[in-house]
C-alpha cells in the first residue's frame, strides 16, 4: 500500500519587476538594431548621391592631367630643339681652333687655304678671342729642316696669312703677314713677322736662331695684346713687345710658296686664344703627326726632339 501522497504542482509566478526588466532589454536591442539599420541606409543613400560628385572629381583630374602632360611635352620638345641646335652648331659651325694642316706635308708642296666661305675647301679662321687684356691668338706647328737654303738673299716661305705678293729680292710677302714665317737665307733661323695697325711699323719682326737641322721642332707663336712670344719646344725663345696693336686680316693662308723649303711641315693649327705654357707643352709632348711620311728618312718615327735644356743654353 502506497503511503505517499502525490504532491500538487504549484504555479510559479514571475514578479512584475522581472518582466519589466526583460521588456526593457528587448526594447534596447530593437532600438540598437533600428539605429544600425538606419545608419546603413543613410550611408548607402550618401554613397549613391556621391556617384555624380566622384565622376565630376575624376573629370576635373583628367583635365589637369591633360594640361600637365601638354606642359611636359612642350618642355621636352623645347629641350630637344635646343639640343638639336647645339649639335648642329657643334658639327657645322667652324672650329675656334682649326687645323690648317693636320698631318705632315712636304716643304715644297705649295698650297693655298681659302678663307672664302663659299669655297668647299675653306678652313675659316675666326678673329681673335679678345679678352679684357686685349687681342689673343696662337699659331702652332712642327717643322723639320733637311738642310739650309741655297740662295744667298732670299727667304724660304713656310707660311703666311695674307697676300701672295712676294718681294723679288727677299721673297717676303710685301703686303700682309699676320703672321708670316720664313726660313732665313743660308742659315737655320726663323723670321716671324706680325703686322700691326700701323703700316709703317718696322718693329714687327722677330728672329729665332739656331733651329736644329734634321730634328723635329715645335714652334708656337703666341700673341697677347701687344706681346708676341715665340715658344720653341715649349720654352720661350724670344719676346717682342709691339709698338702697335696686331692687325688681323681675312686673307688666305699661303703654304710653302715660291718653292717652299727643304723639309717637312706638320700640324699647322690656329687658336683664337693665347695658349698657356701648360697647353703648349701638352702639344709638344704629343709630338708631330707623321701620318704622311713620303721620304725614307722619315720612315722611322723615333726622331730626336730638340732638347729643351740644349736649346735654353743657346739663348
What does this structure look like?
There is one protein chain. Helix content is 29%, strand content 23%. It folds into 2 domains: 16-90; 99-313, Jelly Rolls (Sandwich). The protein contains 4 helices and 12 strands. By secondary structure, it is an alpha+beta fold. A 6-stranded antiparallel sheet has the order 1-12-3-8-9-10. Strands 2-11-4-5-6-7 form a 6-stranded antiparallel sheet, with no helix packed on it. Keywords: Membrane, Transmembrane, Transmembrane helix. The chain crosses the membrane at residues 67-92.
Summarize this entry quickly:
This protein is α+β, with helices and mostly antiparallel strands. It folds into two domains: 75 residues; 215 residues, Jelly Rolls (Sandwich), CATH 2.60.120.200.
- Main sheet characteristics: 6 strands, antiparallel
Decide which structural class fits the backbone: alpha+beta
What is the rounded Rg?
A: 47 Å
SSE series: HHEEEEEEEEEEEEHH
User: Into how many domains do the coordinates divide?
Assistant: 2
Proportion of beta-strand residues: 15-25%
CATH class of the largest domain: Mainly Beta
Organism: viral metagenome
Pfam families: Laminin_G_3
Transmembrane segments: 67-92
Protein name: LamG-like jellyroll fold domain-containing protein
